[in-house]
Amino acid sequence: METTLITAFMKQFGESPTVVVRAPGRVNLIGEHTDYNDGFVLPMAIDRAVWLALRPRTDTYVVVYSLEFATSGRFDLNSLERGKMGWLEYIKGVAFALQEANYPLSGWEGVMSGDVPVGAGLSSSAAVEMAVARAFQAVSGWPWDAAAMALVGQKAENSWVGVNTGIMDQMISAAGQAGTAMLLDCRSLAAEFVPLPPGTAVIVLDTATRRGLVDSAYNERRAQCAAAAAFFQVPALRDVTLAQFQAQADKLDELTRQRARHVITENERTVAAAAAMRAGNAVQLGQLMNASHQSLRHDFAVSSEALDTIVACAREHEACLGARMTGAGFGGCAVALVESAAATSFITHVTHRYQAQTGLTPNLYLCSPSRGAEIWGV
Ligand code: GLA
């Protein structure tokens, strides 16, 4: 990746870049739709990332060539305006959010590339945001503060791009640590890093389906959770225990009850999953992942036929400890925890079975937990 990027940079700009940065995508092991309820999540950064090779400019322009889109875009840091070029808006959004947070910004020019599949639920947009934050940090000279940069990325997404996401994706892309998943308290942003149980591997199962309307369904779920929190008179569903929920559940309408039940039980499962990981208990972690899928499917209603099918195919294999949909849902990816010795046979099995049942060719990736956004080299 680095060599391709440097060659492309030299072709675009005539000289070598002075900095190369990368920021990873992520897969969430458990804790889904809990981040915007101030709850817990347990994602890991994956070894697929967005890369940027760049050098500073002496003016206030940012000029970026995207290898995937084979186009370039530019904007002036002194007059940010919304435009139509999708990927460039994420870059502008980060510049906007950094300026809002009073970071002084210098111009730069760069070539961007990546291998995080777009729209698959592996947070390619958070990876772009954190790579761009790293690029600005590298040329502008202030120190890297992972949590502050994650909040900047979230602001870019919420206020510039217009998608109302939580903090999980940006936090793990900014702060991931090799070999571990991150138990994140989405209220305090306190993070604890926990290694995978010995002998296990994480496999991402891309259903090869993408669904539109995800934003509106996502915002609808957010609103339903906020309504449930209002009913309990607390700032967020994170503040409702299972016992408190059960005592009052019959006063909620059916839909709100289901949505709240997912979030409250998912928070408990996520904390339990981190404890299972600390204890090296792979079986328990897998069971919690299975239970998470049921809850997302029935109570939160964000799964899809393709996701349910690939999860079922995964569970057929004897080396599968647990499997569930991951990310916002409605399409995209599932995640499985498997015995690492049988990873290859698992991948072959799921690929054939899913293909036979759906006619679609899935993409399965064995993922190792990687580092968060970093300056890779010069
Ligand atoms: C998307 C959002 C995250 C989170 C997940 C669901 O990935 O970007 O903030 O809400 O959906 O867990």
Description of the structure:
The protein has 378 residues and is an alpha+beta fold. It has 2 domains: 2-195 and 372-377, 2-Layer Sandwich (Ribosomal Protein S5, domain 2); 200-367, Alpha-Beta Plaits (2-Layer Sandwich). Helices cover 43% and strands 22% of the residues. It contains 11 helices and 13 strands. The protein has helices spanning 2-13, 86-100, 124-140, 146-161, 168-175, 214-231, 242-248, 254-278, 282-298, 305-316, 343-358, and strands at residues 19-28, 40-41, 43-56, 61-66, 71-76, 108-114, 180-185, 191-195, 200-206, 320-325, 333-339, 363-367, 374-377. The strands form 3 sheets. The protein has a 6-stranded mixed β-sheet with strand order 5-4-6-3-1-13, with helices on both faces. The two termini are 14 Å apart. Bound molecules: alpha-D-galactopyranose. Alpha-D-galactopyranose (GLA) is lined by residues 32-33, 35-36, 165-166, 168-169, 327-328.
What secondary-structure arrangement, pairings included, does this model have?
Elements: H1 2-13, E1 19-28, E2 40-41, E3 43-56, E4 61-66, E5 71-76, H2 86-100, E6 108-114, H3 124-140, H4 146-161, H5 168-175, E7 180-185, E8 191-195, E9 200-206, H6 214-231, H7 242-248, H8 254-278, H9 282-298, H10 305-316, E10 320-325, E11 333-339, H11 343-358, E12 363-367, E13 374-377
Parallel strand pairs: 4-6
Antiparallel strand pairs: 1-3, 1-13, 2-7, 3-6, 4-5, 7-8, 9-11, 9-12, 10-11
The structure holds alpha-D-galactopyranose.
